[in-house]
């Protein structure tokens, strides 16, 4: 796993801005949203499942976009201790982008678990922008794919996993 600054992350995806890349690509993708389970075991399993959803291809880019919304759920010692074990000593604000190859699946699952546990915001995407997952501190995630078939398969996988689809009625 490579841990990068925003400007380094921009180069990986070949864009002037990660934010512009996400905005430009996400509008052309098919989306489905789900509630993130509250159970820590399910969050751990979900962190392993999401990067393997249909439509996902490596390398994957995990960009942590928000933190500090729920300070009582954050454990900075755990987060920075884990990143130091990967050789990274910069603060999250200075290096929020994680580039992951197939061999890094366990490291990605660990970082994603912390994103889920700590109530952070993040974007997980492939470098082509054909697969994107938005994770919200409000306990939902949105999966976007370029292929309708991949989207349908991803929805089935997440529903079999037990995730509840987020709908306008569910929000009320």
What is the typical, i.e. mean, pLDDT? 95
Terminal Cα span:
40 Å
* Count of DSSP strands: 7
Fraction in beta strands? 15-25%
Count the domains: 1
Q: In this structure, how is the largest beta sheet organized?
A: 7 strands, antiparallel
Which structural class do the helices and strands define?
alpha+beta
Strand order of the largest sheet: 1-4-3-5-6-7-2
Shape: globular
The portion of residues assigned to helices is 40-55%
Your description of this structure?
- With 172 residues, the protein is an alpha+beta fold.
- It has one domain.
- The protein contains seven helices and seven strands; from the N terminus they run E-H-H-E-H-E-H-E-H-E-E-E-H-H.
- The protein has helices spanning 6-13, 18-26, 40-49, 76-85, 105-118, 148-161, 168-171, and strands spanning 2-4, 30-35, 60-66, 97-100, 121-126, 131-136, 140-145.
- The protein has a seven-stranded antiparallel β-sheet with strand order 1-4-3-5-6-7-2, sandwiched between helices.
- The mean pLDDT is 95.
Offer a few descriptive terms.
7 helices; 7-stranded antiparallel sheet; alpha+beta; 40% helix
């Amino acid at each position: 796993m490579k841990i990068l600054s925003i400007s380094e992350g921009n180069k990986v995806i070949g864009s002037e801005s990660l934010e512009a890349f996400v905005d430009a690509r996400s509008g052309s993708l098919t989306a489905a949203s789900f509630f993130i389970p509250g159970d820590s075991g399910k969050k751990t399993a979900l962190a392993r499942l999401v990067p393997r959803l249909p439509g996902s291809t490596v390398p994957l880019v995990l960009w942590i976009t928000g933190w500090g919304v729920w300070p009582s759920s954050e454990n900075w010692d755990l987060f920075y201790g884990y990143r130091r074990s990967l050789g990274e000593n910069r603060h999250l604000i200075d290096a929020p982008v994680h580039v992951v190859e197939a061999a890094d699946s366990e490291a990605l699952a660990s970082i994603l678990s912390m994103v889920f546990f700590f109530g952070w915001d993040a974007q997980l995407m492939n470098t082509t922008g054909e697969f994107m997952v938005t994770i919200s501190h409000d306990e939902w995630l949105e999966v976007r794919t370029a292929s309708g078939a991949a989207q349908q398969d991803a929805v089935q996988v997440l529903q079999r996993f037990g995730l509840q689809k987020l709908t306008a009625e569910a929000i009320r």
